From TrEMBL:
It comes from the Bacteria. It comes from Halomonas lysinitropha. Keywords: Cell membrane, Membrane, Transmembrane, Transmembrane helix. GO terms for cellular component: plasma membrane. The gene is rhtB_1. The lineage of its organism: Bacteria, Pseudomonadati, Pseudomonadota, Gammaproteobacteria, Oceanospirillales. This is Homoserine/homoserine lactone efflux protein.
Length: 205
């Protein structure tokens, strides 16, 4: 995979990881309730779940492109519609959303278990990844390239939520984020809508 194409992949994976939702709320809760280590445990376990869905998606996309091109196109547009819905939801979130997560008493084991369950228990991730990875997967893609796609999704997802957990372990960070939540939601919403349009436009060359 050319480096420029990988940079595009990394950018869309980062956009997916940073979008507000239950995953962010989970890491917030465990970090606020147990400190840095439970938050990091939730982040890493969530990344494993994301990697599992990314692996399923990459394996299935190549075959789907070859055997059922029209079905693949319809699913891709469905994924784009889902991205657009997430973008509109973020724009309408205002100052609330995932940043209002309440603290809970927690442990590293509980945080890891819930991090994995939130990822695996969210079948919408399949649709999300189809929308994202359809831009990069081809029928003749090598095993190494597929592995790179999966690892990129895992590392970026885990890395982002680890940064969230580490940042939130400092007491001054959360009030700063909460005060600017409406701007964070608006920026995320605009970027998700732009990504939906990019998916509809076709594969990234």
């Amino acid at each position: 995979m050319p480096f420029s194409l990988w940079l595009s992949l990394a950018a869309v994976c980062a956009m997916g990881a940073m979008s507000p939702g239950p995953s962010l709320a989970l890491v917030l809760r465990h970090t606020l309730g147990g400190g840095r280590l439970p938050g990091v445990a939730a982040a890493l376990a969530h990344a494993l779940g994301v990697g599992f869905y990314a692996l399923l998606t990459v394996w299935g996309l190549g075959a789907l492109i070859v055997r059922f091109p029209m079905l693949f196109q319809a699913i891709t547009w469905g994924g784009a519609a889902y991205l657009a819905w997430l973008g509109i939801k973020a724009l309408r979130a205002g100052r609330g959303g995932a940043l209002d997560a309440a603290a809970m008493v927690t442990s590293r084991r509980q945080a890891a278990r819930e991090g994995m369950l939130v990822a695996l228990g969210n079948p919408k991730l399949i649709l999300f990844f189809i929308a994202l990875l359809s831009q990069f997967v081809t029928p003749d893609m090598s095993l190494a390239a597929k592995a790179l796609v999966v690892l990129t999704a895992m590392v970026i997802d885990g890395g982002w939520y680890v940064l969230v957990a580490v940042g939130l372990s400092h007491s001054r960070v959360l009030p700063w984020l909460q005060a600017r939540a409406h701007w964070l939601n608006r920026i995320t919403g605009v970027l998700l809508l732009a990504l939906a349009l990019r998916v509809v436009a076709g594969p990234i060359a």
